[in-house]
Amino acid sequence: MTKQKRRPESVLVVVHTPSLMVLLLERVEPAGFWQSVTGSLEWGEAPIDAAARELVEETGLPPAALRDGRIARRFPILPAWRSRFAADVDSNLEHVWYLEVAAPVDVQLNASEHRRFVWLPLSEAIEKASSWTNRAALETLLMPTT
Questions:
Q1: pLDDT: is 145 or 4 the higher one?
Q2: pLDDT tens profile 10-21
Q3: Beta strands 37-40 and 114-121, pairing class
């Protein structure tokens, strides 16, 4: 039986406090790659379900208050990860979600994915986030809500 290739669609979940302290996770591989909660959608899975699943898997936080950012960004898949996808796939569609928590809390990391976490003020988190889509999702927190 051959392993099914990964779906080229993912979620990014920005976890933050009302005072805009932001949770970032450092990936095991590559070391030094900082990000919000992320993960690929499984085949047949809706973005909200993937966001909830990834949030629990990567942090242990409950997903009840997830908010759809109504943002989807397409980005090229880096060569190091291309083998995970079908041969004709070269980009990924990422859906942005937000979770506000009352205050910074310890999270339960999935040790196979992340080595440590940190809570940072929004401006520092924007500087530390490794991907441009993650930085853009964080910058959205600076925009007034209507």
A1: 4
A2: 999 999 999 999
A3: unpaired
For residue 65, the domain's CATH number is: 3.90.79.10
Per residue in 23-48, pLDDT (tens digit) is 999 999 889 999 999 999 999 999 99
Dist CA 109 CA 89 (whole Å): 30
2 located within any domain: no
Q: How many domains does the chain contain in total?
A: 1
Domain membership of residue 102 (yes or no) is yes
Contact 25, 109 (CB under 8 A): yes
Nearest to 134 by CA among 49, 24, 60, 58: 24
- Identify whether the C-beta of residue 12 lies closer than 8 Å to the C-beta of residue 137: yes
3 in a domain, yes or no? Answer: no
Print the domain residue range for 55: 9-142
Token digits of residue 43: 């085949």
Report if residue 71 sits inside a domain: yes
Of residues 125, 47, 135, the one with CA closest to residue 92: 47
pTM of the model: 0.93
pLDDT by residue (tens digit) across 53-72?
999 999 999 999 999 999 99
